[in-house]
Amino acid sequence: MGRLSPPGAPGTSLALLRYHWSSSVRLSWRLLTPILVLVSCLLLVQADQLPSYGDRLVERSWSVRILLVLVLAAAVPVVTPRLRRGYGGWMNQLPVRQVVQRRLQTLAGALALLPIAALILFLFAAGQPTLGEFGVFIVGLLLALVGVGQRIPPLAPGRELVTTLVGWGSAVVALTPDGTALAVAALLLLIADRSAGVPITMRSRAPRWSLPRLSDWARTTRAAAPSLSGALAVGGFPLLAGFAFLTNNDLEITGRQLGSVLAGGFSVAVVVATLAEALRRYRPPWPWLRSLPVSSYRRVAVDAAWLLLWCLPTLVVSYRLERVAVVPVAALALAASAFGAMAVRCRPGQFFGSSGEVLLWNGLLTAFSALLPGPGTLFALLLTPLFLAAGAARERRFAVGIWRPSQHHSVGDSLDVVS
Fold first, then answer.
1. 47 or 162: whose pLDDT is higher?
2. Are 328 and 378 spatial neighbours (Cβ–Cβ below 8 Å)?
3. For the chain, what are the domain ranges?
4. E strands along 116-255, which residues?
5. 211 CB-near residues (< 8 Å, 6+ apart)
6. What are the pLDDT digits (tens) for 211-263?
């Protein structure tokens, strides 16, 4: 890579390297937990199948190599946002060449994917390869990590596509059983590095997609806690009615599916309506939250995910009633949760309130999905992102006024989000 820093700034690149190293180690620990859970499940459930998996990895056909690269590439979006952070500001001010920053970021991404590489090595060792095969596979896997990591730095649109394809191609070639292919993979990596060029400057903005924090759900649960047991209890009545209907009537599969979808859909609507009304009363939307570096869309999505969490018991019971009905009911749960998060942000003094709005529209959607399960499921899935966007638009329309504590309940005080 040549000299890492320009004259006058010794040690800056080494400090940046340590920064990327610490970031990749933290990301590796995050990926390590699900990998350990997956390994434990494999040992408990399919321990007798591990040698066959290892044999396939030892042979490494084209399909197996492409599958391994796709598995590694699927983890890249998990580590990319964390490693790209800083390109919109302080990284641009460092006395380090941008090409060097891009290479360090690629290496950090490869290090962050090491837990997945360890799982692949574990399965490869189950095939009892020779020492030479094991060494060639380790070197090829490391080159594959670097090839997949070419996608992590922010590049220009045209360069990004070319660099990604060449990097993935080098990863596929690096996993070839023949050791001579490693030189070809290294050449392809050099081509990918040359085609990447200088990373572009990213504009800092609030993340649109991110996992909800436990503190977000803790505040929401605390606000709606008095209504949780009642919501689940009332939501069980449609399921009991559906169970009685299916038990006391000799129906064909279409009739059983219709009854199960109706029972599950109305149960979801009742649960979401009750909890949405509780959130509207005890944790009302606070317009001043828009001053925080979190988008309105994300706040709506967090509420929708929380509502969907309490629909899981209904999905389990619907699966027990009729297995073919669980997919339409799951689609209805997604749409109802998104609609409930939107209904929480209804206008003050609205006649129906949040609960009436949810019961009306989701009841109609449930009836449509019960009569036409296929189109109804697709329609519910298409409406889900539209409901989330409409909820974010509703929140942005709230006028920011004077903070009056008497208008809010202490059990779910929205002011707590900034404490």
1. 162
2. no
3. 12-196, 214-401+409-414
4. none
5. none
6. 556 666 777 788 788 888 888 888 889 888 888 888 888 878 888 888 889 99
Q: What are phi and psi of 6, to 5 degrees?
A: -70, 165
User: Is residue 166 a contact partner of residue 195, using CB atoms and an 8 Å limit?
Assistant: yes
* DSSP code, position 164: H
Closest CA to 175 of 62, 71, 35: 62
pLDDT on residue 86: 60
pTM of the model: 0.50
Q: Give me the residue label for tokens 């504009």.
A: 203
Rounded Cα distance, 332 and 181, in Å: 50
Where does the pLDDT of residue 419 fall: very low under 50, low under 70, confident under 90, or very high at 90 and above? very low
Identify whether the C-beta of residue 147 lies closer than 8 Å to the C-beta of residue 192: yes
> Whole-angstrom Cα distance, residue 71 to residue 78?
12
Quick one: DSSP state of residue 33?
H
State residue 162 phi and psi, 5-degree precision. -65, -45
> Does the pLDDT of residue 206 top 70, yes or no?
no
